[in-house]
Design brief:
The chain has 201 residues and is an all-alpha fold. The protein is built from eleven helices and no strands.
């Protein structure tokens, strides 16, 4: 049964709702409310990036469903490692990927739990870069190396000069950043734990 706090995090006014499949997974796993709120914030940023890509680079193929589902579940491993909701750690990455696969999520959609912080590795796709970027842009954080990787991919695919691509991406990130304070406030309004049970010890 979904806790009231988690239900609020999934349905309260704020960033757009998560894809139904992702929301069901979070409910089934009794996810921390703060995690659901965070995933909605990142999912919103990913949606804006996907819309920007479709408008600015219609000739560059992007698996929009994968990007949106990936953003909506990228941190799902924090269900198993809740300390990483409020502190550093990367154990949630492999754990989240394994959790999604165990719940029948296909690799095309599950991989982002593993790749969202590994955007500088080999075999990284445009979709991986978009999810990684959404995970920063939702709170107006800029990561030049990550942005440059996406710029280089788009310049190569579109034939546009890299500097033009950068200016277009910079504008898109500026629009996303304009709502960062609202997203941060939305996330902070939801508790890390739902309060139904005390932590041991």
């Amino acid at each position: 049964m979904t806790s009231p706090a988690l239900r609020r995090a999934l349905t309260a006014p704020g960033p757009p709702p998560l894809p139904a499949r992702a929301a069901r997974l979070l409910a089934d796993l009794d996810a921390p409310p703060r995690l659901a709120a965070h995933l909605r914030a990142v999912h919103e940023a990913a949606g804006e990036l996907v819309e920007w890509m479709a408008a600015a680079y219609p000739g560059v193929p992007v698996d929009a469903e994968a990007v949106l589902f990936g953003a909506a579940t990228h941190d799902i491993g924090k269900v198993l490692h809740p300390a990483e909701l409020s502190g550093p750690g990367d154990r949630h990455e492999a754990a989240g990927h394994a959790l999604l696969r165990a719940h029948g999520v296909e690799e095309r959609l599950a991989r982002f739990a593993r790749t969202h912080a590994a955007w500088d590795g080999d075999g990284v796709t445009v979709e991986d870069l978009l999810v990684g970027l959404a995970d920063k842009a939702w709170k107006a954080k800029r990561v030049p190396d990550l942005e440059q990787r996406l710029v280089d991919r788009l310049a190569a695919a579109s034939g546009e000069p890299a500097w033009e691509v950068f200016l277009e991406l910079d504008d898109a990130l500026g629009r996303i950043a304009a709502r960062a304070d609202d997203r941060l406030a939305f996330q902070a309004a939801h508790p890390v734990r739902d309060g139904r049970a005390q932590e041991p010890g």
